[in-house]
């Protein structure tokens, strides 16, 4: 079993990233047997579809590496690296551009969402972003890829590209990856709008809990989080139509490993004046060790670069046979 997943290094991790993905990465890493391996990468080649200065991109990559390690990713047990240190990602993406079809990419809903009304002004990189994602996965013969609802379509495209390449060139080069949908995937919503995902792109910092927030900031954000005047019910099903209330209960449940029903039962009949302080306390205690380790790690850029270099060396070795196989299949390396 070989698991691969990546994250774009565009600013601080927030609670949604942690509970929705990173915590599951750590669990997968910890559950791996000796014959299995996890590859986790910082998608800095993907990040060039958004304008950033050179200094900002370097800082983002280092700080994201520090945040992942602080959250529990162990560079000695998992392969942790950034794409740019492994040129095979870009090479295989270009090769797969010859296999992917315009019609397939035109159906990608994320491009339509991100480009919006400015489709003609969007970069080519944003349009072919899913092909680079396919290269990320196929390069390492990944057997499994953790996916959320917003990435299912991209994994299907990856599988289509792999199947077509293998068929077109009569090879058995690319492993067809299967999705992993973790049993306990928490969908964390904005603290200001329970119908929108928590996001680092939201202009309001009050909409999210950053993993770098100090204790007082976390408490303040939970205190000011949008709710409603109704008390909490005995069962979570009764939260239907109350997205902000359901979100806070879901965060409490995810952090404590309990069911939403169990949380509701504990606080049944009480208002958010009682619930919010309890939630803030749990958040503070859960995130404090991550924040403290992150603050220590992020100050040593040389150490972070060294860890990413070591991970990239392992990644390059794992990627080389697949890239050579693709060149050979195309007759580019006789």
Key terms:
mainly alpha; three-stranded parallel sheet; 52% helix
Describe the structure.
By secondary structure, the protein is mainly α. The protein is built from 13 helices and 5 strands. It has helices spanning 15-31, 54-71, 88-97, 102-106, 109-115, 124-127, 129-138, 152-168, 215-223, 243-256, 260-267, 272-297, 301-330; strands spanning 2-7, 37-42, 79-82, 144-146, 178-180. Strands 1-2-3 form a 3-stranded parallel β-sheet. The protein has a two-stranded parallel ribbon with strand order 4-5. α3 packs across α7, α3 (88-97) runs parallel beside α13 (301-330) and α9 (215-223) packs antiparallel against α12 (272-297).
Order of helices and strands: EHEHEHHHHHEHEHHHHH
Low-confidence stretches: none
Instruction: Give the termini separation.
Output: 31 Å
Strand content: 5-15%
Structural class: mainly alpha
Secondary structure: helix percent: 40-55%
Large-scale geometry: globular
User: What Rg do the Cα atoms give?
Assistant: 21 Å
Sheet with most strands: strand arrangement: 1-2-3
Mean pLDDT: 93
Main sheet overview: 3 strands, parallel
Give the number of helices.
13
Number of strands: 5
Give a brief description.
Helices cover 52% and strands 7% of the residues.
Topology:
Elements: E1 2-7, H1 15-31, E2 37-42, H2 54-71, E3 79-82, H3 88-97, H4 102-106, H5 109-115, H6 124-127, H7 129-138, E4 144-146, H8 152-168, E5 178-180, H9 215-223, H10 243-256, H11 260-267, H12 272-297, H13 301-330
Parallel strand pairs: 1-2, 2-3, 4-5
């Amino acid at each position: 079993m070989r698991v691969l997943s990546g994250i774009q290094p565009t600013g601080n991790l927030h609670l949604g990233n942690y509970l929705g993905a990173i915590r599951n990465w750590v669990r997968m890493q910890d559950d791996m047997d000796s014959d299995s391996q996890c590859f986790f990468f910082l998608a800095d080649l993907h990040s060039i579809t958004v304008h950033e200065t050179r200094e900002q991109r370097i800082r983002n990559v280092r700080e994201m590496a520090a945040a992942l390690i602080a959250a529990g990713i162990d560079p000695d047990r998992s392969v942790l690296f950034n794409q740019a240190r492994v040129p095979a990602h870009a090479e295989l993406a270009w090769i797969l551009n010859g296999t992917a079809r315009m019609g397939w990419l035109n159906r990608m809903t994320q491009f339509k969402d991100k480009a919006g009304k400015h489709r003609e002004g969007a970069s080519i990189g944003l349009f072919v972003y899913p092909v680079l994602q396919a290269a990320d996965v196929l390069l390492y013969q990944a057997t499994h890829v953790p996916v959320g609802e917003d990435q299912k379509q991209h994994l299907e495209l990856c599988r289509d590209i792999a199947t077509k390449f293998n068929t077109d060139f009569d090879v058995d080069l690319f492993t067809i990856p299967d999705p992993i949908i973790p049993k306990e995937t928490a969908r964390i919503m904005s603290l200001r709008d329970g119908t929108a995902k928590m996001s680092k792109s939201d202009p309001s910092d009050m909409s999210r809990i950053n993993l770098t927030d100090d204790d007082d900031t976390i408490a303040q954000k939970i205190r000011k989080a949008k709710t409603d005047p109704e008390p909490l019910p005995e069962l979570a099903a009764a939260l239907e139509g109350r997205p902000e209330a359901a979100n806070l209960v879901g965060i409490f449940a995810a952090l404590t490993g309990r069911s939403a029903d169990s949380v509701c039962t504990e606080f049944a009949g009480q208002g958010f004046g009682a619930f919010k302080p309890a939630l803030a306390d749990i958040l503070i205690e859960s995130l404090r060790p991550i924040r403290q380790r992150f603050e220590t790690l992020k100050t040593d850029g040389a150490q972070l670069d060294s860890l990413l270099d070591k991970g990239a060396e392992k990644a390059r070795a794992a990627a080389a046979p697949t890239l050579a196989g693709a060149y050979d299949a195309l007759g580019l390396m006789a």
